[in-house]
Amino acid sequence: MAEVRLTSVGKIYSGAVPAVKDITFSVPDGGFCVLVGPSGCGKSTLLRMIAGLETITMGEIRISDRVVNTVEPMDRDIAMVFQNYALYPHMSVYDNMAYGLRNRKTPEPEISARVAEAARILELEPYLERRPRELSGGQRQRVAMGRAIVRQPQVFLFDEPLSNLDAKLRGAMRVEIKKLQRQLGVTSIYVTHDQLEAMTLADQLVVMNQGVVEQIGEPLSLYERPETVFVAQFIGAPPMNMIDLAPGGGGPKGLDGSSELPVPASGARLGIRPEHLVVDEDGRPVPTRPGDIRLELAVDAVEAVGAETYIHGRLGGDGLMITAREHGKMLLPPGTSRVFTARRENLHLFDAATGRRVDI
Amino acid sequence: MVENRPLANLASHLILIVGVAIVAFPVYLALVASSSDPTTIANGQLGLLPEGHLFENYWKVLFEGTERSTKQPMIVPLFNSLVMALVISIGKISISLISAFAIIYFRFPFRHTAFWVIFLTLMLPVEVRIYPTYKIVADLGLLDTYAGLTIPLIASATATLLFRQFFMTVPDELLEASKIDGAGPWKFFKDTLLPLSMTSVAAMFVIQFIYGWNQYLWPLLITTRDDMQTIVIGIQKMLYVTDALTEWQLAMATTILAMLPPVVVVVAMQKLFVRGLTETEK
Ligand SMILES: Nc1ncnc2c1ncn2[C@@H]1O[C@H](COP(=O)(O)OP(=O)(O)OP(=O)(O)O)[C@@H](O)[C@H]1O
Ligand SMILES: [Mg+2]
Predict the structure, then answer these.
(1) What pTM does this model have?
(2) Which of A165, B50, B97, B223 yields a CA-CA distance of 20 to 30 A from A85?
(3) How many CB atoms neighbour CB A259 within 10 A?
(4) Please, what is the angle between helix A108-121 and helix A93-103, to 10°?
């Protein structure tokens, strides 16, 4: 078992712009760390540097206190699950799992014991003699997991392992992976651009953007207290509504109460999550307290999905598109104008110049 | 497109049958000739049905030789041809696999230059460089040896190109997975790349075996001793006899014998091809 520690890690591909810049964080022993961010932000690059598949341009990576910058992948005691699984097509499922152990000169009885155990955990027993092409996508994915498990490594690395599966299977495998990781207690680093996957799997969430870390923390604390505009908009679906405020606190037409907010001299962006907008029902206004924000929306479209309803409306009649999420059914006719209230404690305020959080 | 029109079916079969007949008839005739006795052919009475001298003729040509021309038992040139074809095809495949592996998977200075140099040799088959090659082989004292017969024909741009093309389609993740699984470059080559290339190797083997087997000009130059002759030259020598009749029945028997090994190779490798075609590896 091992702690993974990154110190000022950076990567520059062949002299061009840096793909990863000055990243520092550590994953505790047995922790499940998820790297999440938009496409091209450098997640895979960072993971591959930890795996030893890319050289490290600067900084230092340690696995259980050993600096591994120049250590070969096979000597880092890691296992990796690839997006396309990278199973050896000409080998049986058994051999795919056994190959790494054989290369390490593990005695054959030990190999078959470990493969049998992995096959049992992953329910792959009936398929051990098959070739990868004779398996379904989900089964291949499990073989890739099995190949990682049998090695009993110090660290698991996953690069979008579920992105080739359909939505239902992805949900099921997500639960499996989490269960397995708890059971085995192996330190894991997992790359995804799916924020649902990120939120549900992570003990520790690392949000990346354009090669830098935006914020690190527990999934829910990132949701509740995003430190930057980027994190605020990246975590949560549908994404947080963002309204620009002028330096004095003045906002667009239809916005009421923003002058109470501590808007910095450079102006601010006010963030409100859709689920925090409460609609005035049948003309009975939601009782407000000082500091609450009220928005007047002209309803554009209503999406009822059963347990909840998404209401899309334009601020002040024809302004910014704002999304609100209400419990239950709420069939507002399009075209009507409604007032929505957001509690002060649910507001997020960001400096317009730096994009960083401002305390309210 | 699956169509079921009896008339079209019949027509296409007819065309195919005629095609096969055109190709197969001369071979059949050679077989008939190789079973007849010398006087029948000399009198121009060769029929369309085989005669009774088949084993006698083959035995004679294999182990005793012709009476009037070379007087060499043909088992020796057959063996020489087999060695030549095998060494050339296996040599070409090995060298090409290794050079394609180097070009695709290793970063070394002048990698692209190396590739283009190999590519350029496509334009320099033996026939073009025959004099300098002969000179080198002669100076090295390799005339009338298997080495002289085969080594100059081994370098192969075609196979290198084919394997390079194939290696480029192998996903990088396989290499990376191998690295993490503790396989070095050589192990990756042996355990992963080679098994995946098997169908290409089989294809190359067939093509290069036939190429090696059918060599004519080079063996003609490089061999002088009768015991180093190849079968293709053996046939040629059988046909030119001074002051006597060509022993056609023996020449035809030799021709049939010369056709057999390539046929065997094609049939044997065909299984691999078919498997490669039907079960695409992913
Ligand atoms: N081998 C390479 N050579 C040069 N640039 C590269 C290379 N690999 C990646 N990059 C660049 O580095 C940046 C980060 O790429 P990376 O693959 O880490 O993104 P990612 O976050 O994994 O994206 P995705 O979610 O699409 O997989 C990208 O801008 C990419 O163009
Ligand atoms: Mg990626």
Answers:
(1) 0.84
(2) B97
(3) 13
(4) 130
CB-CB under 8 Å, A90 with B196? yes
> What is the per-residue pLDDT across A286-325, written as a single tens digit (0 to 9) for each?
777 888 899 999 999 999 988 899 999 999 888 899 999 9
Residue that has been written with the tokens 């520790």 in this structure: A204
B102-107's contacts with Cβ under 8 Å and 24+ in sequence apart are B103/B160, B103/B164, B104/B164, B104/B167, B104/B168, B105/B167, B105/B175, B105/B185, B105/B188, B106/B185
Residue of A nearest to B280 (CA): A133
Q: Bigger pLDDT: B68 or B9?
A: B9
Q: What tokens appear for B58 in the block?
A: 């083959």
Residues with beta carbon inside 6 Å of ligand 1?
A 13, 19, 37, 39-45, 193
Contact call for residues A122 and A172 (beta carbons, < 8 A): no
Residues A8, A216: Cα–Cα separation, whole Å: 15
Longest dimension (CA), chain A: 76
Task: Please give the Cα distance from A226 to A234 (Å, whole number).
Answer: 10
Count residue pairs from A and B with Cβ separation < 8 A: 62
A198 touches chain B (CB under 8 A): no
Place of tokens 């060509």: B246
* Predicted ipTM of the assembly: 0.84
Cis peptide before A252 (omega within 30 of 0): no
